[in-house]
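Researcher: We're teaching a course module on how sequence relates to structure. For the next exercise, students receive a sequence and then see the predicted structure as C-alpha cells, so they can try to spot secondary structure elements on their own. Here is the exercise chain.
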Amino acid sequence: MGLKSPLHTSADGMFWVFFNEDKTQAILTVSPPQGDGNPVRVADVVRALEEMGVAYGIDEQAIRETIERATYQASKVQAVVAQGVLPVHGVDAKVNYRVPEEAVLRPLPLLPDGSIDYLHIDPARYVEAGQLIATVVPAQHGRPGRTLTFPPQTVPQRPGREANLRAGENVLATEDNLQFTAERAGYVYLSGDRLCVLPAIPVTDDLHGEQVFDSTLVLRGRLLPGTTVRVQGDVAISSRCEGVVIQARGNCYLREGAQQSEIAAGGNLLLGGSVVDCRLSTRRQVIALHEAVQIAGGRLVAFEGVQAYTMG
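Model: And here is the predicted structure for the students to work with:
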C-alpha cells in the first residue's frame, strides 16, 4: 500500500484594525495567507477603517507595504496605517542657578537655639550685590491632538509645569520672572517658592583697629586684641576673642567665647565657648549653647534673661 500525501492546506490572509488609546492612530495587524490562499487586499483594509469611522489620514502605501511584508516574512506584521494629530506634550520650566544648585536647595544650618549658624553656611552660596543668581527657561505648553474619527475630537496635551519661582528678600526679578539678581551681598537660599539672599559679609582675614560693617559679619579670621567692631546686622566669629569691643544690632555668636572683652547685642548673645571677665549686654537673652560653656566674672545685663549651665 502506498503512502498518502500530506493534506495541502490553504487559507486567505487575515487582518485586524484597532485604534490606539486616544484614537489618534489606527494600527493594522496582517496575518499572511497559507498555501494558495489570497493575501489581504488594500481595499478591504480601507473599507474597514472607514466603517470604524476614520475620516482622514489613511495611508494606503503603508497598508500595501504591511501586507507585502507579512506575505514575504510569512508572519504577522503590525504597523500604523492611519494617522491623526498626535498631542505634543509640554516641557516643564527649568531653573538654571548661577551658584551650585545643591547648595541653594539645602536648608540653612541652624544653631541649637534655632538661629542661623553663619559659620557653617556653604561658602558656595555667597553672591555679590548685582550678581545674576538664576535664570528660568519658560515652560512649553505643547499643543493638543485630534482624533481620526468624525467628528474629530480634541485630544488634550499634558502642559509643562511652570517654575513658580519668585523673588524674595534682597532679590530682584525681571517682570517676566525669568531672571533673578541679588540686591545685596550675602548667601542665597530658598524660602518656599521664593529665592532670597541672607545679607552677610564673609571675612577670612584677621581684623584690627576700628571696623564698621553695614551688614551681618561672618568672621572666620581673628579679632586682634584692641579691635572694635560695629555691625548693623548679626555677627558670627569663629575664633576666641580677647581684649576686643563688639557691638551688633542683631544677634552675636561667639563660637569659641571671649575673655576681657566688651560685647553688646541688640538680639541674642549666643555663646559656643566660655566667657571670662567680660562685660556682656543684650536686649534679649544670653544663651550658652552647651553644658561646657561657663560665664565667669565680669558683668552681665540681659533684658530677657540668661540660659546658662555654669555662672560665677
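Model: If you want an answer key for the exercise: The two ends are 125 Å apart (CA to CA). DSSP finds three helices and 31 strands in the chain.
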